[in-house]
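Annotators were shown the component list below and the corresponding predicted structure, then asked to write short factual statements about the assembly.
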Amino acid sequence: DVKVTQSSRYLVKRTGEKVFLECVQDMDHENMFWYRQDPGLGLRLIYFSYDVKMKEKGDIPEGYSVSREKKERFSLILESASTNQTSMYLCASSQQKPNTEAFFGQGTRLTVV
Amino acid sequence: AQKVTQAQTEISVVEKEDVTLDCVYETRDTTYYLFWYKQPPSGELVFLIRRNSFDEQNEISGRYSWNFQKSTSSFNFTITASQVVDSAVYFCALSESGGTSYGKLTFGQGTILTVHP
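Structure shown to annotators:
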């Protein structure tokens, strides 16, 4: 069974903390993505990576950075967490070919207090 | 820029009713891909169906069917004989084509479907 696994389901962090969200996929996919989900806004792309050490900004990259040192692992970093980053974060992966769906992790609900 | 609009925020139906979820999209690409995903209360998005821009044939898969019309930029999704287990948030999404961007999705706002027994 193919899988995208996110390290935590729930996280509570304090304002100003550095936060790491980890994601691992076992499908040998080239592409990996981090989305943020907020009510009424759907999912918005934060960053994506199309190869090891390669990344591109999505629609809302401000306040975030990413790291992809290995093909299977993609990390989202909040350098200094703020309350407006309280949200559901979803990781996804896909092949780099046409008409391919993305596979999603179970999500991490982050609360910044 | 790509955009996906799901005008229905919430839909409530009684079991066994048919329900159609609307999706309208905007893109300048001539080749693109459309998807429907389901997000049950567990949180994980589950892929349901896909359609590419050069194939307007509408299909039925079990209780699911979809109506893709390029002329109106719409990709509507129908669940026939709804069941309580269909209760979830449904997302329509649009994918870019070309190069490294496959799988990169623009999502609609989501439609919350509640099916009552």
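Statements collected:
1. The interface with chain A takes residues 4, 6, 9, 31, 33, 35, 37, 42-47, 50, 52, 91, 93, 97, 100-110 of chain B (CB under 8 Å).
2. Chain B has no helices and twelve strands.
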